[in-house]
Design goal:
about 375 residues, mainly alpha, ADP-ribosylglycohydrolase fold, disordered N terminus
Length: about 375
């Protein structure tokens, strides 16, 4: 694979690659599972259900609900299938066989679509089962986005010149784009290309793909050892190179960085999310809220676990797309700190140790742990 083409800082030796992989997948799933509980609640409803502090952590939430675990939503489901599409491509590469990564991701997304609808679209190419398809817990429908479903309900693959749902810029592109930034050694232009090709499978508005690409670039920079603010600035600089296509995404990122520098002292309480960032239902707003939450969490404390806790409170305690915004914020801090965000000493230097970091209260823990093991095994 291509080596990176910029002068990024060397990877921080204290955060091993397996730890970052587990950090992204596990912290993203934590944010998703928490946010899914209140995804369709406005701020008064969140306060009524959970009190003035809103949703604080899994233990408190489980105490209220009386449950033993929490499920993830379509955000994590789709992220795992995109990850598996890239994993198939990497496995072919490792075996010395050429393969098209965009096609591998498309076939994986078709298999996700089958988990939601029961069948592949009529006329679609065969998409043979892989390890992930053996997990029945992923065949549960948890509020999938309309554009994600309709964009994949066809035998034709969306392409940059012929995208599906040309006017749509829902957050369904951003929320599944972290895996593009997790592929070791990719040049920025290849990260962008993969994120764009993945986005247009379902969403055709320019903001949808530029937000997805900017997020993937941020994750990629974090995997290479950059600090969070530097990684965000790196993605922001790229947006200036794509002209009008990136204008909305650039404005949203600028608003997030400015808001994080002036965040309220009670950031994370219900109703404190700056209104300028939107609600997260569209791509650039989901990106902005996630970046704001992660930056505030990182600025307020040097403890990675405490930073994640605050970022997730910010990501869930608002009246918008809380599972997506919290999942994205968790992924950013997981990419930066690895499993330390989960309260683990960063000793996850191999696949098994990293996989064990996935919290037991996540209902889909087993499939997440297996995804960590397989990705680390193929990319280390």
């Amino acid at each position: 694979m291509d080596r990176m083409n910029d002068s990024s800082a060397p990877d921080a030796p204290a955060v091993a690659h397996p730890s970052r992989v587990a950090g992204v997948l596990a912290a993203g799933a934590v944010g998703d599972a928490l946010g899914y509980v209140v995804e369709f609640d406005d701020v008064p409803a969140i306060r009524a259900r959970l009190g003035a502090e809103g949703l604080t952590d899994a233990d408190a939430l489980l105490a209220v609900t009386g449950g033993r675990d929490l499920p993830v939503s379509d955000d994590t489901q789709l992220t795992l299938f995109v990850l598996d599409g890239l994993l198939e491509w990497i496995e072919w590469q490792n075996a010395g066989q050429a393969a098209d990564p965009a096609a591998c991701v498309w076939l994986a997304c078709l298999r996700w679509h089958r988990t939601q609808t029961g069948a592949l679209p009529e006329g679609a190419p065969p998409a043979p089962d892989r390890w992930i398809d053996a997990h029945p817990e992923l065949r549960v429908r948890r509020a999938p986005g309309n554009a994600c479903l309709s964009g994949l309900d066809t035998a034709a693959m969306g392409l940059p010149g012929d995208p599906r749902n040309p006017g749509s810029k829902g957050c369904g592109t951003v929320m599944r784009s972290a895996p593009y930034g997790m592929v070791p050694g990719l040049e920025d232009r290849h990260v962008v290309s993969l994120a764009r090709q993945g986005a247009v499978l379902t969403h055709g508005h320019p903001t949808a793909w530029t937000a997805a690409a900017a997020y993937a670039l941020t994750v990629s920079a974090l995997f290479r050892g950059r600090e969070l603010a530097e990684a965000v600035a790196h993605a922001r600089s790229w947006l200036d190179t794509v002209g009008a296509d990136g204008a909305e995404t650039a404005a949203a990122l600028d608003a997030a960085v400015a808001a994080a520098a002036d965040a309220p002292h009670d950031a994370g309480a219900p109703g404190t999310l700056p209104s300028a960032l939107g609600a997260g239902w569209v791509a650039e707003e989901a990106l902005a809220i996630a970046v704001y939450a992660a930056l505030v969490g990182r600025a307020r404390t040097a403890d990675p676990a405490a930073a994640l806790a605050l970022a997730l409170r910010i990501g869930v305690n608002h009246g918008g797309d809380s599972d997506s915004t919290a999942s994205l914020a968790g992924q950013l801090l997981g990419a930066r700190h690895g499993v330390a965000v989960l309260g683990r000493a960063d000793a996850a230097v191999d696949a098994e140790a990293a996989a064990s970091a996935v919290p037991g209260w996540i209902r889909e823990r087993d499939v997440l742990a297996e995804a960590v093991r397989r990705w680390v095994g193929a990319t280390s």
